[in-house]
Amino acid sequence: MRKVSIAGVGSTRFGRHDGIPVDELAAAAGRSAIIDAGVEPERVGALYLGNFVGGMLTGQEILAGLAGEAMGLSGIPCTKVEGACASGGIAFRHAYLAVASGMTDVALALGVEKMTHATNPQITEALNSAMDNRADAPSGLTFPGVFGMAWRRHADRYGTDREQVSAVVIKNKRNGLSNPLAQMGAELRFDEVRNAKPIADPLRLYDCCPTSDGAAAVVVMAQEAVPARDRAIDILASVQSSGSARVAGHPDLCSFDATVRAARQAFGETGLGPQDIDFVELHDCFSIAEIIDCEDLGVVPRGQGGGWAIEGRTAVGGDMPINPSGGLLAKGHPVGATGLGQVYEAVSQLRAEHPNQVPGARFGLTHNLGGTGVACTVSLLARPDA
Amino acid sequence: MDTSAGSRRCRRCGSEDLVPIDIDGRGKILSWTVIRRPSGAVSRQGPFAVALVELTAGVRMTANLEGWENEPAPGSDVVAVGEIDGIPIFAASDPSS
Ligand SMILES: [Zn+2]
What we know:
The structure holds two protein chains of two kinds. Chain A has helices at about 20-35, 55-60, 65-70, 85-100, 120-125, 145-160, 160-175, 190-195, 255-270, 285-295, 305-310, 325-330, 335-350, and strands spanning about 5-10, 45-50, 80, 105-115, 200, 205, 215-220, 235-240, 280, 365-370, 375-380. By secondary structure, chain A is α/β, with parallel strands linked by helices. The longest helix of chain A is centred in the N-terminal third of the chain and has 16 residues, at about 20-35. In chain A, about 65% of the residues are buried. Chain B is mostly beta strands. Chain B has a domain at about 25-90: CATH 2.40.50.840. Chain B contains no helices and five strands. Chain B has a five-stranded mixed barrel with strand order 1-2-3-5-4. Chain B is globular. Chain B starts with about 25 loop residues before the first strand and ends in a 5-residue tail after the last strand. The relative contact order of chain B is 0.21. The interface of A and B includes residues 137, 142, 201, 246 and 249 of A. Bound molecules: zinc ion.
């Protein structure tokens, strides 16, 4: 396998994008990534696009081919991948593999979603297709409900309380305020988080990420072919794993074993450990998810995710900055684009160009989780001089 | 070649060697939630409760829960009291009965 770098990144703002077709939204991010990379579009040899609910909410499939055509990338293999909310991370990994294997020197990973035009029951129904239709969905369970159950379990086992969980919301919303790509940054107080309208107990409105439109893109390139090494970011590992698609299939709702497996493999491949990581962009689809994810990744000790959040240890200036971008909670969650949005944020950090810069960041970790932990990707990225 | 499509299989290992067992419908709540904003695919309006239940027989299942207004503690005893569309409904059981 060859060494692989990220040569360029692009992203639309996450939020509302009325009046622009979903394939055009994807192409907008793709074009800016190609310009950022400084490569001729003809050199792109493969395109992978992550999208989850495009068919259900926009009625438009074949998005990979449509986006490729819109960018003038004619004739190359254009492949759509789907792994629920991990679709973008999976697209990134496929682009990485296409280059690492020697199939092409340059590959484009794209992620896109358009959701805000639909009603909440329609969106919940579409997202519910990432649940097992035989075991879980007939009970009326929703994804906020899955994480509501996980919250109660975590509270029961580790004593995690609402103040600790709300600290995640307050931190991420505050980080989002200074990220120009974020959908809804805010300065929130504990009582505002606690008294927001209930969604799925104990989750309330601000514990849940918003519904978003958006697209993000990453140009992946063989290290030896990168034109400007000073702007390139190296991919040390890009791992994908799976877990149970059923709530009852998880040994413990306080943990998603797909995350544990992917992190272990990524660290194992690189010889790095959680102590080497300078910041993390992880899948906080709900407030409690950030607490579970950081423990599963091993960057925070098991059971202490809530404590670390309320003590400020996961803030930008803390021991382990988590979601300096604002995460899904503040930046938004256009599901198919999220995994690539995380890579975009990590690359900005490692180039020392992020609006919420972690000083001296050399190694970053991104984590994208789909469904009930059925699909997961973890990537380790590094500054070339790291 | 007989692909046996349509026959019932174990969802964990794929085995077709299934036998019915008698269970008494008793178990414990591992966790639960109240759905306030349902999916458009279900006809029921919120709020209603969904629980992850571990049966005494060892099987875990996602089910509906009655009596959630009493805030059942994790680990509390429940018993199946009915079903909606094949999904069991559980309610708190008196452990002495
Ligand atoms: Zn079996």
